[in-house]
Amino acid sequence: MNRDLHFSAAIYGLGGGLFFLSYALLEVPSNLLLARFGARRWIARIMITWGLLAAGMLFVRTPLQFYVMRFLLGVAEAGFFPGVIYYLTSWFPAEARGRAITRFYVASPLSTVVMGGVAGSLLGLQGRLGLAGWQWLFLVEGLPAVLMGVAILFLLPDSPASAKWLSPDEKDWIERKLAADFSSPERHRDRGLLRALLNPIVLAFALVNVVALGSYYAFNLSAPQLLGQATHLDVGRVGYLVAAGGVLGAVTMVLAGWHSDRRRERFVHLAIPLFTSALAYAILSVTKDPLVMIGAYWLAIVSNFGIAATVWLAPSDVLAPRSMAVSVAVINSIGQLGSFVSPFLWGLAKDATGSFHLGISLLPIGYILAALLVLGLGRQAKARRDHTPQSRGRTGPAPDHIGEID
Questions:
Q1: Which residue segments constitute the domains of the chain, with CATH numbers given?
Q2: What is the pTM of this model?
Q3: Is 214 helix (H, G, I), strand (E, B) or coil?
Q4: How far is CA 348 from CA 13, 213, 220, 354, in A?
Q5: How far apart are CA 368 and CA 274, in angstroms?
Q6: Contacts with 183 (C-beta within 8 Å, 6 or more apart), sequence order
Q7: Does position 86 have pLDDT exceeding 80, yes or no?
């Protein structure tokens, strides 16, 4: 695409990042509209508009058109992730929610497996029906989302109460379990957007998310090009390397979520993949060996999905349950701003130096700082648990949420 349209790395990086700018700006408004229209209708709307715009990318010819389409893609997708989380919380009680969210989120690395294998074949359709390979890629990858959106609109129930496959007793059981999760007075207190924005714990997690999302997307937008240059493999074979990374990422995500639940610990499980990401990018910044670069690339992908498996679990240890909805939206929105800035700066560095080396060399610093911040939050959460009346052996009611910070 860059070759056909004569886009520089800076143009491509700015366009890549604009998606995350509009996504971040409209994350919270989209969630408010989801609450108004219902998760089923709003998720279907997101899928349909995103699919049409993604397929419409094949008509891009100029940098301005590229910028507009990427911005509109972010507008269309805003609110999807927290919307799905919100929908899942209306079905699964707390003890099953972690497994439900992890099984949803594992679709991310699995999509890398599918599209990493398919993308090479689509790019190989160069010239068919007068379309370039990249145009075929946008068309074929965008339209299934439209079909899925239509299916969601007609098949997805709004709530357990409207699910035809549940018996009345099962519906009543789910309703009682969900009601018990939010029965305490603390969990019924209102939590506003401004309060979340001023919460230092929310801002700390948002900073971690800026590093994790911004660094990953800046690198990932150029990863196929880097792998192709290092290995001299064609586009199809590079796609298989990407797909293999998705397989490893899916396994890592499931294992990380399972082990974190088993140990009932979130912060070390988040810090370890952050440190591992720093190691992976440090290796990428110094090696020229193709095999070492492939291994470091896979390590970076595995680490990223290890982060994704736990980054949304750690806040629940230090934030009140009722504040989680708006806090997740704030953490995700600020993180997406990093995803806007990082690809643009990545492209500028590439154009200024002629290589990706400077950008890769800076990534380990951010990951190390984020890991240290996470360990600090973990120590604070542990200190709060150790000072609760229950942990000191005093009588009296247990706290509503151990270690929570409103």
A1: 2-386 (1.20.1250.20)
A2: 0.70
A3: helix
A4: 8, 18, 16, 10
A5: 7
A6: none
A7: no
